TrEMBL record:
<dbReference type="GO" id="GO:0043022">
    <property type="term" value="F:ribosome binding"/>
</dbReference>
<dbReference type="InterPro" id="IPR023153">
    <property type="entry name" value="DarP_sf"/>
</dbReference>
<dbReference type="GO" id="GO:0019843">
    <property type="term" value="F:rRNA binding"/>
</dbReference>
<keyword id="KW-0699">rRNA-binding</keyword>
<keyword id="KW-0963">Cytoplasm</keyword>
<dbReference type="InterPro" id="IPR006839">
    <property type="entry name" value="DarP"/>
</dbReference>
<keyword id="KW-0690">Ribosome biogenesis</keyword>
<protein>
    <recommendedName>
        <fullName>Dual-action ribosomal maturation protein DarP</fullName>
    </recommendedName>
</protein>
<dbReference type="GO" id="GO:1902626">
    <property type="term" value="P:assembly of large subunit precursor of preribosome"/>
</dbReference>
<feature type="region of interest" description="Disordered">
    <location>
        <begin position="1"/>
        <end position="31"/>
    </location>
</feature>
<keyword id="KW-0694">RNA-binding</keyword>
<dbReference type="Pfam" id="PF04751">
    <property type="entry name" value="DarP"/>
</dbReference>
<dbReference type="GO" id="GO:0005829">
    <property type="term" value="C:cytosol"/>
</dbReference>
<feature type="region of interest" description="Disordered">
    <location>
        <begin position="177"/>
        <end position="201"/>
    </location>
</feature>
<comment type="similarity">
    <text>Belongs to the DarP family.</text>
</comment>
<comment type="function">
    <text>Member of a network of 50S ribosomal subunit biogenesis factors which assembles along the 30S-50S interface, preventing incorrect 23S rRNA structures from forming. Promotes peptidyl transferase center (PTC) maturation.</text>
</comment>
Length: 201
């Protein structure tokens, strides 16, 4: 369950004529603190794609530079404080952006796993290379055979996996994972929400 869903569920289930209860406010605060921690732990390029007010962005970026445990803890509290100043639209915009980024990450992971499976098959049996060359006749068969042979020798001799890694890169180029990743990233960028302006309220 995403943080914004938790936030909304709490609000709808516990809201009364007298306003939110103390326990509701506490849970909302924890949910926003968790959301702030997600922002702090994002990769730099992913963080740049999340819409947020300048004061929150500055607090998050400052927190990422702090390595001392106590200093980072205090800064995380400040990030949480900034999160609690956001309205519901702003929180939803951040959560939607995070959902898109996580989806892209899952897609990238799946593609990398597919490449790893191909490499394992190529090293395990010669028939796999025949299958690969049938599917991709433009591939450099001699280069692949050399890399496979050298990677097998590396494994047998427990040497550094130079050919093993080169084989992965050749497969990545051959199977078009790099370009596919870019397309996925571009599509994800198009799905990112616009940050709501005050005129939208």
């Amino acid at each position: 369950m995403t943080h914004i869903h938790r936030f909304n569920r709490i609000a709808h289930s516990e809201l009364s004529d007298e306003g939110p209860s103390k326990s509701q406010r506490k849970r909302e605060s924890h949910a926003l603190q968790d959301l702030g921690e997600e922002l702090v732990n994002l990769a730099k390029d992913a963080l740049a794609r999340v819409p947020m007010p300048e004061n929150l962005e500055r607090a998050v970026r400052d927190c990422r530079t702090i390595t001392a445990h106590e200093g980072r803890r205090r800064q995380m509290q400040y990030v949480g404080k900034q999160m609690r100043t956001l309205d519901e639209q702003e929180i939803e915009a951040i959560q939607r952006a995070l959902d898109v980024i996580k989806g892209v990450s899952k897609a990238e992971t799946a593609k990398l796993h597919a490449l790893e499976r191909w490499r394992e098959r190529l090293l395990a049996k010669d028939e796999a290379l025949t299958e690969l060359l049938t599917q991709h006749p433009d591939a450099d068969g001699q280069q692949l055979r050399t890399l496979i042979r050298n990677a097998r020798r590396e494994q047998a001799a427990q040497k550094p996996p130079k050919a093993f890694r080169e084989l992965f890169q050749v497969l990545k180029d051959l199977l078009g994972t790099g370009s596919a990743s870019s397309e996925t990233s571009d599509d994800a960028d198009n799905d990112l929400p616009e940050f709501p302006t005050r005129e939208d309220y």
